[in-house]
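Troubleshooting log. The previous structure file for this entry was overwritten by mistake, so regenerating from the original sequence record. Sequence copied from the archived sheet and checked twice against the printout by T.R.
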Amino acid sequence: MPGLINNSQNKFDAIEGLIFSNNLRIKSLDIRPELDMMNIALNTGFIIRTNLTSFPTLKKAPKTKLRNYKLIGNGTGIHWPSLDEDLSLKGFLKDELLKIVTPSAVAG
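Regenerated output below.
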């Protein structure tokens, strides 16, 4: 796909190109600290599941602060004002891709 290559006309890397060319956005967030789980629902219907323990600030935070978040960047990020924590759709997608292509993730 020509729009995904970083060149002088395009300042996006491949993951950013994927996000913007397909208008991918975070639609909602479901945080389950008791299960060490965070589900990120995208506007495509795809759900990214990740562990809260992957994010030290979120892992230590009380439920009330975890639930106090805002979607930012037109749905390309999540911000927790009281925790001063920001996570990006790009980072979530990168982690998902690494799970797929990293043999140790599959074997574990």
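Residues 1-8 have pLDDT under 50 and may be disordered. Archived copy saved in two places this time.
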